[in-house]
Amino acid sequence: MREGWKKSALASAAVFWLAASPAGADDAEREVWRLFVADHTAPVVRAIDLETGAGLGNFDLKGFAALTASASGRTVFAIQTEADMVQAISTGIAVSDHGEHRDVDIKAPEMLPVSFAGRRPVQAVPHDDRMILFFDREGRADVVDEGALLEGKTDIRAVDATAPHHGVAVTMGRHTLVSVPDTEAEVKPDELPPRLGLRVLDESGKQVGDVTPCTALHGEALSARLVAFGCEEGVLLARPGGNAGPKPEMLPYGSSLPKGKVTTLLGGKSMQFFLGNFGEDKLVVIDPDAEEPYRLVELPARRVDFALDPARAKNAYILTEDGDLHLLNVLNGSIVKTVRVTEPYSKDGHWRDPRPRLAVAGDVIAITDPRHSLVRIIDIETLSESRTIPVEGMPFAIVAVGGSGLDH
To answer: Where does the chain cross the membrane (predicted)?
Structure first.
């Protein structure tokens, strides 16, 4: 795998850093991590200081939420699908790059005054200083400027998604990649049409080139300068193409893999690769430039959640329904350690039933345990539980934001 890029400074989806320059007399090296936890039984997000376990604020929502941190980690978006609303929370952590070192600015988290209404929001994709929100029943995506949002302003660029469908949009330089629905498919009145491909739009919204086939497109991730999408036929890559726009390229699954497909993807931060599901009890490590791009990983039980470690490039963590946490070496596709961290949470039942979720926060993994109203803190070096944080209600979705720098 090739060495990739460093996309951001914060979040479980961000790179962990160390300040490199000497501090002044009044400067201090600070490391801070915060957890943002959505409840399964009440429309609320709770902010928690990871070090102390203290609550930093409860933020009331319009509905139950999935959470996505921005690339910078300065904001967390609460996607409320059933309430037709997306709200944003300022995490209170900002890191600025000063070449030889980074500064960290720490404030109280707060709910931002700007919200985003639209029918059935389901996807929030962070990229650089933007968040792209997709509204299934609107047939549109909104590209949100994070800087303006943090100033209490609305700076949105709407992207036409052809027609309502369960889709996604991702920005790539001056272009936008948008899923394409099959508008000729026969569907019931309460159903959405299937996805049949991907198209590229320029800054003016004009389509560039033809639609690239990608049947039942679902799941997307960014790694280095590549964007990947899960399809029936394989994983569709979009590579930079300069002024001509991104160049789509299909990586077929091939005969070496069993029957299945990728529908969820994670992108490596310090190495260029992707990790995707392959059904409920398998994963695939995807090296886009390898002669054999797919490495199959068989799990001992069905997957509940999984995450990449932005600081330890070879580490991935998988939580399975038997309550085990597995450490995966993505370089060779082997599970090198397994530890029991929760009681079993079966995958049977409704897909939205309360089950644990995990987030990487520096040297620990934070795992929600909804039945016991806890966030369990797991030491990465030993995979042992170091402590627990009691959380009111039923903690469910979780993101971690943080890092270190000089505090002036």
So the answer is: none
